[in-house]
Design brief:
Strand content: 15-25%
Oligomer: single chain
Shape: globular
Largest sheet: 6 strands, parallel
Helix content: 25-40%
């Protein structure tokens, strides 16, 4: 199978696998198991963007403190903004922390998604409503296209997952923001 895709620069051929997996891989170099320092992870990501598998690469994952540090690390001659995903455990605090940095970095980065851990001891519907509302309040450029909710591994995850899915379905009309969820399949649950 071959899918023809025409871009403004030139026509390109993509195999079915490339079409299916395009943009599938988020780069998490600062997190375990790689656990690179921010500069090394950023250098790797920028290198991978020019590699033969760049079609599979999507967002650069970072915490709020790491996003704050990007302003001094990013080259000023990027061809296009780097898509970022904020990894957060306290979204309200993190969004307030990085709002100014996102304005400073507006030509070098785009915060296109958020991944936020839900607290299993609190109401899932209330958390989702608050997170969607907070995201809308900071997203004045409408860059954020996806909010991923993560259920932590706990004894109640089998009970909480259907609640999360139902709430996502109820809130699916969030405008341009898509709601998704992620299950942690590895790494250090403390990060």
């Amino acid at each position: 199978w071959v899918l023809m895709v025409t871009s403004p620069e030139s026509p390109a051929e993509l195999t079915a696998a490339q079409a299916l997996f395009a943009g599938l891989i988020d780069y998490a170099g600062v997190f375990p198991p790689a656990a690179l320092d921010l500069q090394s992870a950023l250098d790797n990501y920028l290198s991978y963007l020019t590699g033969s598998y760049s079609w599979a690469l999507s967002r650069f994952l970072a915490t709020a403190p790491q996003i704050l540090d990007l302003s001094s690390l990013l080259p000023s001659d990027l061809r296009s903004p780097i898509p970022l995903s904020l990894i957060s455990k306290d979204l309200c605090v993190d969004l307030a922390r990085i709002k100014g940095a996102l304005q400073t970095l507006r030509y070098l980065t785009e915060l296109t998604s958020i991944e936020v851990a839900l607290d299993p001891s609190k109401s899932i519907p209330e958390q989702i409503a608050k997170i969607v509302s907070e995201t809308r309040s900071i997203d004045d450029r409408n860059d954020i296209r996806t909010i991923y909710f993560e259920l932590p591994t706990c004894d109640k995850w089998e009970v909480l997952l259907p609640v999360l899915l139902e709430e996502m379905s109820t809130n699916s009309s969030t405008g341009a923001i898509t709601l998704g969820f992620k299950l942690r399949c590895g790494g250090d649950p403390r990060t």
